[in-house]
Structure formats: C-alpha cells, structure tokens
Specification:
alpha/beta, Rossmann fold, 5 strands, Bact_response_regulator
Length: 121
C-alpha cells in the first residue's frame, strides 16, 4: 500500500512540483495551502509531512507544534521545505520536532532521499 505524504505550502506551483516527484516515486499525496488548511485535512493516516515555514494564516513552525500535540501524529516525521537557511530557524524547527530541513530551491532527488529515510516501510 502506498504511503501518504502531506505537502503544506502556500505556493500551488511548488506543491505541484513536490507532488509530481512524490507520485513518481510511488507515494500518495495530500496538499494543503497553509498550516490551518493542513490541520483540517489531517484525518487519516499520514506517514510524513513536508511543510514550508513562511505561510499565511498559520506558519510551518506553529503548524508543526500543533501536529506534535496531536496523539495520532506525535511521531509523524516532518520535513521543513523552505527558503529559510538561518541556523536559528533550523534550531526552532528542530525544537518543534522537524526531522529534516531542505532549503529551496531543491533537487527533487534530494527531497526524495530525505523522504525515503524518514518514511517507515
């Protein structure tokens, strides 16, 4: 059975690029435009979340903290996919529970490698 990955980003084109790469690698995807939208769509088994940091309504770090409070998603790995490369932001993301930090622009293979490491078989 295919693993489901949630893509959270306010850029529709970026969500599409990530979704195409993931589907090509055999994953199912759910897309959300910001943290609030993503929380409303977390109702089934999501094996991994890829989230932007800077988004309207609810940013990626706030979203991550909310996800980690939810018993069903406490151990769901999260990859932050962002233009942010400062050490402080990375530290804030890791403290909130991010397992990986991929800086945009990114190579789809680089992201798929991170996904493969974090999605449990």
């Amino acid at each position: 059975m295919a693993k489901t990955i949630m893509i959270v980003d306010d850029s529709a084109s970026l969500r599409q690029v990530v979704s195409i790469a993931l589907k090509g690698a055999g994953y199912d995807t759910i897309e959300a435009c910001d943290g609030r939208d993503a929380l409303s769509k977390l109702n089934g088994k999501v094996h991994l979340i890829i989230s932007d940091v800077n988004m309207p309504n609810m940013d990626g770090i706030s979203f991550l903290k909310e996800v980690k409070r939810h018993p069903g998603y406490k151990f769901t790995p999260v990859i932050m996919l962002t233009t942010e490369s400062q050490a402080e932001k990375k530290a804030e993301g890791q403290a909130a529970g991010a397992k990986a930090w991929v800086v945009k622009p990114f190579q789809p293979q680089q992201m798929l490698a991170a996904v493969a490491k974090l999605v449990m078989p």
